[in-house]
Design brief:
This protein is α+β, with helices and mostly antiparallel strands. It has 5 helices and 3 strands.
Length: about 130
């Protein structure tokens, strides 16, 4: 009997609210580079962040605290900046906090199937 594939995880895409602040600087869709995106996703913590946003989002975007990661704020800032600069997430400033969401439509247009792979990834037990 041939092996069967596990069912694909359902990526959550929530509607964009109308009153959002402008996004922080990020690459345009046509500037997204596969090697840059894969480089950012090569870190298990960043991969975990993106996967959680794809599968568990409760709101359109989320603060760093929503992830429940036990890491220093400076470390998390670095990881979220790397994801934004690679074009994987979009960040907006809300007063003193930044909130993030995955650029699903942009990434699917540029790299079809990539986010399905991220959503289907299973973290190792020794990673977040």
């Amino acid at each position: 009997m041939p092996p069967t594939a596990a069912p694909a995880a359902a990526i959550k895409v929530l509607p964009e609210p109308s009153d959002l602040p402008e996004p922080l600087p990020e690459p345009a869709v046509e500037e997204l580079r596969l090697e840059t995106v894969l480089g950012a996703l090569s870190d298990p913590l960043r991969l975990t962040i993106v996967r959680k946003l794809l599968l568990e989002s409760e709101d359109f975007d989320h603060t760093c605290g929503w992830f429940g990661l036990d890491r220093p704020k400076s470390s998390l800032t670095h990881h979220f900046k790397a994801l934004r600069e690679a074009g994987i997430t979009r960040q907006r400033q809300y007063g003193l906090e930044r909130r993030s969401h995955v650029r699903v439509a942009d990434l699917n247009a540029r790299f079809p199937g990539l986010l399905d792979l991220v959503a289907g990834w299973t973290p190792r037990p020794d990673h977040p």
